[in-house]
Write a structure and sequence with these properties.
Pfam families: DUF6131 (PF19626). This protein has about 50 residues and is an all-alpha fold. Helices cover about 70% and strands about 0% of the residues. The chain has one domain (about 1-40).
């Protein structure tokens, strides 16, 4: 999710499409939060690990 967000962010900046930039930032933030919660052992969506 973090990588997809980064790709959308870069594409949005290069082509000047603001909605892709916004979606990219949101996906990066959600992915980072899920990654942090997964590494601390909190289950996310019924899974004990998040890759």
């Amino acid at each position: 999710m973090i990588i997809l967000g980064l790709i959308l962010l870069i594409v949005g900046i290069v082509f000047g499409i603001s909605i892709l930039t916004t979606i990219g930032v949101i996906l990066m933030l959600v992915g980072a939060v899920a990654w942090l919660l997964g590494t601390t052992g909190h289950p996310i969506g019924g899974r004990s690990h998040y890759w």
